[in-house]
Amino acid sequence: MRELVYDTTLEIHMDNLVSNLNYYRSLLKPHTKVMVMVKAFSYGLGTYDVAKLLEENKVDYLGVANTFEGIELRKAGIKLPIMVMKPEVDSFDLVVEYQLTPTLFSQHALERLIDTVDNSKPLAISIKIDTGMHRLGFDSTEISELTKTLKANSFLKIESIFSHLAAAEDPKEDEFSCHQIKTFISIANTISENFSYPIDQHILNSNGIVRFTDSQFDMVRLGIGLYGISSDKKTQNNLLPASTLKSKIAQIKHIKKGETVGYNRRGVATENITIATIPVGYADGLNRNLSNGNWSMIVNNQKAPIVGNVCMDMVMIDVTNINCNVGDEAFIFSAKNTIIEMSKCIGTIPYEILTSYSPRVKRVFKY
Q1: How many CA atoms lie less than 13 Å away from 295 in the CB half-sphere?
Q2: Any idea which fold 243-366 has?
């Protein structure tokens, strides 16, 4: 059977991912471990292929959001330790079965785990501390009960204690970030001194690695930085784009002055124009707020603004002054019209752009 050829593809530049990983590694002390976040389909790029690349490049840990993501990696053959940031309490048996490391963030979750698993076998866990993000985690008033419960259930071995910086990228919030780090050290040490074995500590995310290098502790968690994006200008200059989204021109039309293009007739031709239809739309992840000239694709090295509203499966672009033909490539984002620029254009963050592209967009891994 002939393989399907896709018009719209998300190309993942695997060598660039390795380059980005190595850049962040260059900022770390020799003993510092690296956990890489591959949650949300590896930020939209394709979980298994990215995870396999990271395994080959000897990262220490992978991080996922939920139990399903961890199980999928195990089924795909990934052997690296995998931390589940928010394991479902009703699926703790699967966490154990697939040898995942659950994050415990509340007494309720801890007690459910104890009630679920076989206490004759040791189980590695991680403890999440709330130092000010106020999303998940034990706060300082709960540490005494937490420690007491863990000591009474010695089959649970704490592999790491961690927290999350709420605003590591924002210099205006550095005082708060430093307060979080100080709080974390105090709470993590209070827990650790109750146990005779070593326990890893980690709090830094991608921006934290760059801006709070003295707080690397035992491990860091690399997320958006791996995928080529940083809010720090110097760091951004050292990163390479992880992906390119492109499609092909399906049809070219000549539109007369006064005619309209697309739904609700939002695209109005103020002069004679030529448009090209591109088979990508909001069902693929192309945000509808990019409509009506808010974003431009790149066709034959020239900018082609979006005309009218983005449709579910298609979008029209202005190619009036561009020499192009049916089948020519149109770059939705690339090194010349970046995800960072796109996110600013619609008032969001690159994370949302990356994770929005649907499974029907074919991922092509370039080595």
Answers
A1: 28
A2: Lyase, Ornithine Decarboxylase; Chain A, domain 1 (2.40.37)
